[in-house]
Design a protein that fits this description.
about 80 residues, mainly alpha
């Protein structure tokens, strides 16, 4: 079983929120061309929030050092 790695977890969350931001941007664009044009701003705002969260997790991953190898991993 793998040990918990906070850096890897932060990168995973950064990717997850970047994907969500991209989906919300696509949804906002689709709303522009549909009868729900009034919702475009809401989707864009949520997408921006997801992108900001993704950047925060990416910064956390960058600032988090790699875990030290255990003696079993070194052999």
């Amino acid at each position: 079983m793998d040990d918990y790695n906070p850096r890897t977890e932060a990168l995973h969350l950064a990717r997850r929120y970047a994907d969500r931001a991209a989906r919300m941007a696509t949804s906002a664009e689709n709303k522009l061309h549909a009868s729900e044009r009034h919702m475009t701003g809401d989707y864009a705002t949520v997408g921006t929030l997801y992108a900001d969260v993704s950047r925060v997790y990416a910064a956390i991953a960058t600032a988090t050092p790699e875990p030290e190898p255990t003696p079993a991993e070194e052999n």
